[in-house]
Each structure stands twice: as C-alpha cells, then as structure tokens.
Write a structure and sequence with these properties.
Distance between the termini: 119 Å
Oligomer: single chain
Number of strands: 44
Shape: elongated
C-alpha cells in the first residue's frame, strides 16, 4: 500500500479486509460523459506501431502461449459506491471522469484470471494487455496494477478487494490513446509457486493523480483486460528407474550389479530411466545422472546424455568408476530448454567385479558312462565348487544356456533355475531326460549380480520309455482312425497321455487302470499324417515322444491318347485332351497348370474332368494337376511329363 496520508487515500483498509471509499454512498444513476481527448494522435501508423510493440511477446523456445480465462472483470464508481459494474460493455472508466451533470467520479478496474491451466508449469513470460478508447494525458501515464485478495466477483467501491502488492505499471506511450501492455511474469510465476489458482488484480491511477481529470481514461470493453502467458511444462520427475535392467531399490537389501573388468571388451553396467514432459512437442531432453559411493558423497560422478520423451534412456557407467563390494547411490533428473525436473528417487546398488571363477559340480542318481533304465526322474545336485557367492544355478538339456533378463523380475524364480540353499551353497532339482539315448545337461552358476560361471556338462544314457502306439485297420484319407496307447518299457503308473495330430493342439486322455488308453484321430492331411504321443506317470516321469505316421497318395490320375506320358505325341498346333480323375469322395474340381505357368481350374463330374490343350512349341512339357474338395482343400499334385513332336 502507498504511504500517502489516509485522508487522501480512497483505499484505506477497513476492518473487514476490503477497502473503504472516501466518497459519499450516493446511489444515484449517472450517465458517463466521454473524456475529451486533448492530445491528438500522430496518425494511424503510430497506433499500429504501438500495438505491434506491446503485443509481441518474447519468442522463447519451448513455450506455449495462451490467453488465460478471465473469470471476472468489472469497475467501481465512487459516486455509486455500493453498485457493482460487472462484465461492462462499451467503454470502461479508469481514474477521474465527469458525467453529463458535471459530477466527478472515480473508478477502478478489477479482474480475476484462472491459473488452473498453468498447474505444474513455469510462467516464462506473461503480459497484461488493455486498449484505451479515450485518454487525456499519455506522456505521464502511470496506471498501477495491483495484486489483490480474491474478493467478490463483482466488487463495489465500498467493498473492494484488499490490495496486496503493486505488480506493474502501464507507463507512457507516444500514441494517445494507445494499446497498453505490462510485464506480469514475476507476479504470475509467484502465484504458481505459492499454489494459487487465481490471480486477482486492480488497475488504478496513483493516489496523487487519481482525482485529476487529466489522468482519467477509458478502456475498451472489447477485448477488455487480457492476460497472455507463455509457459513451459516443468519436466516430470523421472520414473521407471533401472540399475543395469534391475529395478531401482530405495531400501535394503540392495541389488548387486556385475561390473566387467576394465581390461575386457563389452558393455559396462547402465543406469536408465524414463523421462516425460506434459509438452509433447518437447521431443528431446538433457538427462543428468549423479552416482556416488554411499560412504563418500563427495566423490560424485555425473553422467549426461540426450533423452527422448516417454522412452527409456540409459547411460553407461565408465569403466573403472565402480569398485567391487562398494555400495553406491544414484538419482537422475532431466532438463528441457527452460526447466529442470526434481531429482528422482535415490536408488542403491552394490558393485560386483568378480564373476564365479569355477564351473559348478554335478552329482546325480543317474550315472554317466552306463545305461539308465529311465521311468523315474533323476535327482540332480549342483555344487558351488568353492565359489562363496553363488546364488543360483541355471540348467538346460539344450545348449547354450539362455540369457538372463531381469526386467520382468528375478530370473532365478523362473524355469530352468534353482536357487542355492544358502549363499555359496548347493541346489537340487528333479529332472526328466527328454530323449531316449544320450542326454546332455548343461549347468552354470550365478552370483547375486547375475554374473555367470563357465558351464559344466553332464551326459546320461537313458533307455527308451516311449509309449506303444497302434491303429486299427488300414487308415484312409479323410476317415477317422482308432489309436491304441500303452505304456512303454521301464515305465509304471502311467496315468495319462498327451498327444497331437498333425502338429495341432495338444490333447490329453486319461489312462485306464492298466495304463492303456484309446483315442480317435482324424487323418485329414492330403500327404503325411502323424500322431505324436507322450506318456505321463504319477511319479513325474514324462516319456520321450513316440511318433506314428502314414502318408496318403491323394494325387489324381492323368491320361492322354494325344500325348502319352513320358513319350512323344502330336505336334505343335494339334488340339488334344488330357483326362484326369480321382477316386476320393468330395472332389468337385481340378486345378492344373502347363509348364508351371498360371494355374487354371476345371470342374469335375463324378471325380473326372477333361483338359483341352493345343501346344505352341515342340519338345518336353509338363502338366501339374491336383484335386480340389468342396471346402477348398487342395490335395496332392501329380506332374505328367510328355513331349510334343516336331512339325
């Protein structure tokens, strides 16, 4: 507030938090008399120049400009002290003015702007704009802009919002009247920082000049007061933090991270995060990762790199940065052209520079160098071979071993792994060799940093335990066949079978008390048909696959008197025929092509059809033919070779 004498201050603060007017509480209606402009404009060009100067907001990379929603605007009148003039039209008085009766009024202008659209954003630039319609003195213009308390939406002279601080001034212009602009960047940003959702303002003449008609002016109600803000979204706090593809750990126990020796080739461990920004046009950012030993925060390593909005961004920790056995902390933040995010959650890791230096040991109930009967799962124990920090073992009947992936959780909980019973301890699994004959198990150990040892192999020979598969009668194409299943040798307590027909969906049939079972299969392949079967025993044994197969010849017969097969027939230009036939039911047509050209189709009657042909060249030719069923199935093809004679 001004320190002017309260007797001359029409905004002396009342006990209710609103300002009290010095004027009488007259409620009489008055008609406004437009203020006479005594200063003439230099011309229309001056107005255009002034408008261009005031309305051109600074161009800043990364800013988004918008006119904030004006939730209210009004003016007050000292001679109508209890009347609200909300959403005025035409001209809006500011300062001293006279009505048609010669009475002098004082007016102030109030507005409130909604800051909700700027939540989480940084106000880079903000300008308040107004347009004068009449003014007497522009050379000494000194219109003050005050931030006020959020008062009633349509204040009166007697009940006006409390002034809090002056935040700007509309100063002198060469043009008169003029387009006005004032920088309110600091005020808007201060409101955002304080978490306010509105900015309420007052326009008034200085107290020393407010009663002077020469300083009074009128504003254009259209567009009125306009607050243009150029803002930038502060980048979001980084998320999805990973230590070398392991989830960030903010609390103990901390993950161990493998660190290859600096003398070896290969990637060093990474730190990564996902960076985002509400301004989706901000496609690139600068990411900063800070890494330090927990016991020596003064030894911070800063890693930087470009980041892409919404995508994981990783930096490699330089070789030699991490020391084995040391616990480190790290966090990250991201900057766009204008703002920097908060630091992320702090993550912790323990560096491990030594992978298991010895392969694991393997012992089993199945012996190497001898035939094992099978039928019972083999018990296998893996040993650390003296490596103190072995945490788990990986095993597979196929080699090489798969690569571990920590992005979806701890791989030691997945298939093909068994945890050590203690750090550096052993692990035991029950396994079924997948094949008859030799089976080789490949095993490796892992430490807590998912670093793998060299592998060990363990080979066992297992006798055949696959089931017995037999079919009834002579199978025919397109007809179901009855299949009988029985346990193979060295197998007991078979409780079910799993099988597939021609590689289709796996099916299960429950075994009878004696271990046998019967199923019906549709043999619908025009060529090779096969049934693959495994037996399952109650003790966990799964037999190798037993395959039964049959091949059907579904190709048609082809004959020609004009061009006998594998012989020389009629010459070029001679028209002749080929007769094709099939004994299979359901044949509706035949597809054919000469010399592997474009295929054609001819309809069949009772499984037979005739193909017309007139050769255009002599020498060897071929006719490929196949039958087509009503559902569109194409059966096996037959190729008929013949020779066209020279003319």
């Amino acid at each position: 507030m001004s320190s002017a004498d309260p007797a001359d201050d029409p905004t002396a603060l009342g006990s209710d938090g609103f300002t009290a007017s010095f004027s009488s509480p007259s409620r009489r209606k008055t008609s406004m008399r437009r203020i006479r402009t005594v200063r003439l404009l230099a011309g229309a060009a001056a107005v255009a120049t002034a408008a261009a100067t005031l309305l051109a907001a600074p161009a800043t990379a990364g800013t988004f400009h918008q006119d904030l929603t004006r939730s209210s605007w009004s003016y007050t009148d000292s001679l109508a002290p209890d009347t609200s003039h909300g959403d005025p039209g035409g001209s809006v008085p500011l300062g001293a003015w006279q009505d048609d009766a010669g009475a002098t009024h004082l007016s102030r202008v109030y507005a409130s702007f909604d800051l909700g659209s700027l939540a989480g954003r940084h106000a880079v630039v903000a300008h308040l704009y107004a347009q004068e319609t009449d003014a007497t003195d522009c050379a000494e213009r000194n219109v003050e802009v005050w931030r006020t308390a959020d008062g009633p939406p349509n204040p009166t002279w007697h009940r006006a919002p409390r002034e809090i601080e002056k935040i700007g001034t509309f100063g002198a212009t060469d043009a008169c009247p003029a387009d006005l602009g004032v920088d309110l960047t600091s005020a808007v940003q201060a409101a955002l920082t304080a978490g306010r959702d509105r900015l309420s303002i007052e326009l008034r003449e200085p107290l020393s000049a407010e009663k002077q008609l020469a300083h009074g002016r009128q504003l254009d109600a259209q567009p009125g007061l306009r607050l243009d803000v150029g803002s930038n979204a502060v980048p979001d706090t980084p998320t999805q933090l990973l230590n070398d593809e392991q989830q960030c750990a903010a609390n103990a126990p901390y993950p161990y991270i493998g660190v290859p020796p600096s003398t070896t080739l290969g990637f060093q461990p990474t730190l990564s995060a996902v960076f985002s920004d509400a301004d989706k046009n901000e496609s690139t950012f600068s990411a900063e990762f800070a890494l330090w030993p927990v016991d020596h925060p003064d030894q911070t390593t800063v890693l930087t790199g470009d980041a892409i909005e919404g995508a994981p961004t990783a930096v490699h920790i330089p070789a030699g940065t991490l020391t084995g056995g040391v616990t480190y902390a790290w966090h990250t933040r991201v900057s766009d052209d204008l703002d920097t995010s908060d630091w992320s959650t702090t993550c912790y890791l323990v560096a491990d520079t030594q992978r298991p230096d010895k392969p694991p040991t393997v012992t089993s109930t199945y012996q190497t160098g001898a035939w094992n009967p099978g039928g019972t799962p083999m018990q296998v124990t893996f040993g650390a071979n003296g490596v103190a920090d072995v945490a788990a073992y990986q095993y597979s009947w196929s080699s090489p071993l798969g690569v571990v992936d920590t992005r979806d959780g701890d791989p030691f909980d997945g298939t093909g792994f068994v945890r050590a019973d203690s750090l550096g301890g052993s692990g035991t699994v029950s396994l079924v060799p997948p094949n008859s004959g030799p089976n080789t198990l490949t095993v490796a150990s892992y430490d807590r940093a998912y670093q793998r040892s060299d592998s060990t192999t363990y080979t066992v020979d297992v006798r055949d335990t696959s089931p017995v598969v037999a079919v009834d009668g002579t199978p025919q194409y397109g007809s179901p066949v009855t299949v009988h299943l029985a346990p193979g040798p060295n197998v007991s307590d078979v409780d079910r079978y799993t099988y597939t027909v021609n590689g289709g969906t796996e099916q299960t049939v429950v075994a009878n008390d004696d271990g046998s079972a019967t199923v019906t299969a549709d043999l619908d392949s025009p060529g090779l048909n096969h049934i693959d079967v495994r037996s399952h025993s109650s003790n966990g044994w799964i037999s190798p696959v037993k395959t039964w197969s049959v091949t059907f010849d579904t190709s048609p017969s082809v004959a020609s008197d004009t061009w006998p097969e594998y012989a020389t027939g009629a010459g070029v230009g001679v028209s002749g025929t080929f007769t094709v036939s099939s004994t299979l039911p359901g044949v509706v047509s035949f597809g054919y092509a000469f010399d592997w050209g474009e295929p054609s189709v001819v309809a069949a009657t009772d499984g037979k059809a005739t193909i017309q042909y007139t050769p255009e060249s002599n020498g060897g030719h071929a006719l490929e033919v196949y039958a087509i069923l009503s559902d569109g199935t194409q059966l096996s093809s037959y190729t008929y070779y013949f020779t066209v004679a020279d003319q």
